[in-house]
Design a protein that fits this description.
350 residues; alpha/beta; Four Helix Bundle (Hemerythrin (Met), subunit A); Rossmann fold; 2 domains; four-stranded mixed beta sheet; binds 5-S-methyl-1-O-phosphono-5-thio-D-ribulose
Length: 350
């Protein structure tokens, strides 16, 4: 199973997800600006993976701050954190990871800056390992929802590539297979960046997990046909009431799943839940460059001068969601209290 990012010799190394499945190319980030660019340009993507990248970016930034003066150090660190946070607005794991790093640094205020930097490196590496462990727990909690001989529809890529490893939605798939269940995945291709056709198909195929790609506009047809037993997707941000921001197209799948009585699940770590957002209406939606729609691999596919709309995410109202699968267990309706219960439970464990 792949892990898309590592900390190596005080550099951040990541697989270039723009190039998959054609090329397995690893890029080295030597400073936080490189990491920021990789986040913005989707070299690394997926909410938990972006969080790990940002945490590592901050550690990299700290390494390059050339001062012994703690006030200057903390001021520059904050600027680095703000810069990294500004790269993508929807995935809350980005902000969550940076806040965690800021808190870690502040807890050591007064210590030599080398020690603070070392602690930020250790924290970032720990976040990578933790994320994989969390995904395994998400998988274990989701297994009960997967019948034997199931066909699972997923949208975008919420797999190993989108996380530290193992995946959230695809973590549920992996756990079901490890539990001896027969599972096949249908991957929506996920226009325009093709996370499903390129990334979900690539990582499942690599792990010999049965997968077939369908175009986004086929999902309704197959949900109606009875082929699909359940839908599992990831999330970029979940509001306190259970509304979910995820890759554009998720909402349509959720409505079609409900219409056809196919259970629709969201698998995500608690770090993706933003309880400060009362509902999905408060979640910012990223608008990406028109070029990702007007061009395919450098070639223009729309008439020159014709505009496009390009929201990268949509909001699925919680009424379409059967359960949110987290490392602390399942949240079900009413989601607001269900989500709060999970946070209380996790506080007791740690
Ligand atoms: O634009 P992306 O590729 O970063 O969007 C990714 C998604 O929408 C994923 O479904 C989400 O981040 C969950 S990843 C475990």
């Amino acid at each position: 199973m792949i892990s898309p990012i590592k900390w190596e010799d005080n550099q951040v190394v990541m697989i270039d997800q723009r190039k998959l499945p054609w090329e397995e190319k690893w890029l080295t980030c030597r400073n936080y600006q490189d990491v920021a660019r990789c986040i913005k340009e989707l070299v690394i993507r997926g909410a938990p993976a972006i969080g790990v990248a940002a945490a590592m970016g901050m550690a990299l930034g700290a390494l390059k701050i050339n001062t012994n003066n703690p006030d200057i150090f903390y001021e520059r660190l904050k600027k680095i954190s703000d810069f990294l946070a500004s790269q993508r607005p929807t995935a809350v794991n980005l902000i969550w990871a940076l806040k965690r790093q800021e808190k870690r640094a502040l807890s050591l205020y007064g210590q030599p800056v080398e020690e603070v930097t070392e602690a930020l490196i250790t924290e970032a590496r720990a976040m990578l390992e933790e994320d994989i462990a969390i995904n395994r727990r998400i998988g274990a909690n989701g297994v009960q929802l997967v019948p034997n001989k199931a066909t699972i529809l997923t949208h975008c890529n919420a797999g190993a590539l989108a996380t530290g490893g193992y995946g959230t939605a695809l973590g549920v798939v992996r756990a079901a297979i490890e539990a001896g269940k027969k599972v096949e995945v249908l991957a929506d291709e996920t226009r325009p960046f093709l996370q499903g056709a390129r990334l979900t198909a690539w990582e499942l195929n690599k792990d010999r997990i049965p997968v077939k790609v369908i175009t986004d506009n086929m999902a309704g047809h197959f949900l109606k046909s009875g082929l699909i037993d359940l839908v599992v997707v990831g999330a970029d941000r979940i509001a306190a009431n259970g509304d979910v921001a995820n890759k554009i197209g998720t909402y349509s799948v959720a409505v079609l799943a409900k219409e056809n009585r196919v259970p629709f699940y969201v698998a995500a770590p608690l770090s993706t839940i933003d309880r400060s957002a009362y509902s999905g209406a408060e979640i910012p939606i990223e608008e990406r460059t028109p070029k990702e729609i007007t061009h395919i691999r450098g070639r223009q596919i729309t008439p020159s001068g014709v505009g496009v709309l390009h929201p990268a995410f949509d909001i699925t109202p919680s009424k379409y969601i059967k359960a949110i699968i987290t490392e602390a267990g399942l949240a079900q309706k009413p989601f607001r209290s269900g989500i709060n219960r999970l946070f209380k439970k996790i506080n007791k464990i740690f």
